[in-house]
Hints:
The protein is mainly alpha-helical. It contains five helices and two strands. The protein has two domains: 1-94, no CATH class; 96-148, no CATH class.
Amino acid sequence: MLELLIEEKMGLEKGYVKAAKEAEQNDFCSRLNLVWDTPLAINDALKENLYSCFVAVNTRLPLLIIGKPGSSKTLSLRLLMKNLGRTDDEYIKRFKSIRAFNIPGSENTVSGDIKKVFDNAHRSMIPKGSTVPLKLHELKDTLVVVFD
């Protein structure tokens, strides 16, 4: 729906936005090492989740990926963690590696559990022997809190 609105407002040919988005996702995914412990189906859902995670992490925007178990939500972030900062691709290696802090979600998860994970992420920003956290641009990794 949004694609149609963008095309209409900008006077673009129908299908242009979708084709451009898919081309960008395909190019991005072709630069990654997508080898995993088990064979992967490099389908549209995985490509979209990988690219969305990449954009969100590097623009520091929150991202919610909602889906059934096995729909590549966690896998997408793990594949990015495996690739960012650890590849020979000139474009991809310009981005910081990712350090994830997981919040295991269940019906028993309480706010204190979530706060602990955010506190751990914050503490990881403080260099040894200091009490002052580094600024985000000074960190060698990008910190990501994942509610899984």
